[in-house]
Design brief:
The chain is about 35% helix and about 10% strand. With about 160 residues, the chain is mainly α. It folds into two domains: about 70 residues, Winged helix-like DNA-binding domain superfamily/Winged helix DNA-binding domain (Arc Repressor Mutant, subunit A, Orthogonal Bundle); about 50 residues, no CATH class. The strands form two sheets. It has a two-stranded antiparallel sheet with strand order 1-2. Strand 3 and strand 4 form a beta hairpin. The longest helix has 14 residues. It starts with 11 loop residues before the first helix and ends in a 28-residue tail after the last strand. The mean pLDDT is about 90.
């Protein structure tokens, strides 16, 4: 199924979806965070068709999220997360935490994420205020920034501040 591109929309969320919004892409990223690096490993772990995997890996490399490295004499590449890719971790953790809450397994949490140095569980992902307080959804609002153009295609409807 061919999806509409959002590259002309003046919306950060839409532009992000153009890069990582396809479900196989998210699962490839999940596996990359868990240490998967080789094409054959991705294919075996996910059961994904070779052509789909090739397309998704190439897109992630083109976007600078993964780096393709040749590591042996036979020329088999490995795919390694870049800094841009590592910056996606909070998104994947947030989605996983949402799934733990709303799509829970009857036997309990599927995975527990821990801090490597202390082996203690991490906190659930949350939106934080500048002073470190967790904020609830109704405590947050969007206001137009310098790059916002309400006339641009796909621009979100941002309410003017009544202040």
């Amino acid at each position: 199924m061919k999806y509409k591109k959002f590259d002309q929309m003046n919306c950060s969320l839409a532009q992000t979806l153009d890069v990582i919004g396809e479900r196989w892409t998210l699962l490839i990223l999940r596996d990359a965070f868990f240490g998967t690096r080789r094409f054959s490993q991705f294919q075996e772990n996910l059961g994904i068709a070779r052509n789909v995997l090739t397309t998704r890996l190439n897109q992630l490399v083109d976007e600078g999220i993964l780096q393709r490295r040749v590591v042996n004499d036979r020329g088999h590449p490995e795919y390694v997360l870049t800094e841009k890719g590592l910056d996606l971790q909070p998104i994947l953790l947030s989605m996983t935490h949402w799934g733990d809450k709303y799509k829970a397994h009857p036997a309990g949490q599927r995975l527990e994420f821990i801090e490597r140095s202390t082996h203690r569980p991490i906190r659930r992902m949350a939106v934080m205020s500048q002073d470190g307080r967790a904020l609830q959804p109704r405590e947050i609002k969007a206001v137009a920034g310098p790059g916002f153009d309400a006339r641009a295609p796909g621009a979100p409807r941002v309410a003017e501040d009544a202040g």
